[in-house]
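Title: [Solved] Late embryogenesis abundant protein LEA-2 subgroup domain-containing protein 3D structure

Original question kept below for reference.
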Amino acid sequence: MSQIDIRSPKHCAKKGFNFNFFNKKLFKIFSTLTFSILSLILLIWFILHPVKPQFILQEINIYQLNFSSLHLLNSSIEITLETRNPNQKVGVYYDVLKTYASYKGQPITLQTSIPPFYQEQQNSNLISASLVGNGLPVAPSLRYDVGRDQASGKMILVLKIDGRIRWKIATWVSGRYRVNVNCVAILPLTPLNPAASLSSKQGTQCSTTL
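Solution (posted by the thread starter after getting help):
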């Protein structure tokens, strides 16, 4: 009588294809590749980590700042800004920049859009913008605040910039990042010289957040 050789699936797996071994090997290769790619991206980021652009308020001119009624303000302000890109290997696309002037926490001009531009590494640009508000609704207390500042001899305005920027590293361009800028301008005032036709050289470093 011949002997019947009966083998279990476990014995067959030893001679056949080992799926568990293949899956483990594939997982190990995939994990190593993923780790290498992430490490390379992290290394590039640390080497080329973009530094936020700098904004300097160089000059501000107030040509008009008066009230047509208790709560309606007329304003005309011209500003000169300097933008600087401190990065050595990263360019900056300024896609959207909108600016306006604020006084005592209230907007006193409408938003003005600055045309988009690209800034090379370690480069700077001068930007001029006219900020206007005709019959702009404001709180009635603002008129009192202007008079009080005239008596004290100075007025503090805040220039605000809201925008979107992109980074450029070689041929790679990032997605858009939001940027917010606040520039504080201190203007001299006297009772005999109301807030009109004022010119002030500033050179003030603005605060920038991304």
